[in-house]
Amino acid sequence: MSPKALSRMLAVKERIRQHMRAELAEANAGVETAERHASERENVRTHAAHAVGRRGEVEGSELQHRAELFALARRDCAEAAKVLVERNTERDVRKEAVVDATRDTRMIETLRQRSLVVESKAQSTREQTELDEISGHTQTRRGT
Prior knowledge:
Number of helices: 2
Helix content: over 70%
Shape: rod-shaped
Number of strands: 0
Order of helices and strands: HH
Structural class: mainly alpha
Radius of gyration: 34 Å
Low-confidence stretches: none
């Protein structure tokens, strides 16, 4: 494949790699948001658990209300943990896509460099052949 074609292919692969990196940055931001949300939900759950466990005289309806809040906080906490796992999985998938895109880009870059070396050697060989032919013609004219 010619260096020019490989250069075009390299440009396309580099754009794809940049796009994948942008998606990875979005996934990282999603993980950070999910981590904050999960932490907040855990804090609410902990606070609700402490409210249920407080000692002292409490009416039955108040105790029931605290228990309901705790159950709701526990569900929210579990949902936030589930979202966090999903975001981490998504980030891992995107990270792998970036690694693959980088590998493809480097492979094409290496092929392009090798192609340039081969083309340069071929050009040098052609120039040397032309010089040899010119030299041969000059010697023939001299009669040697």
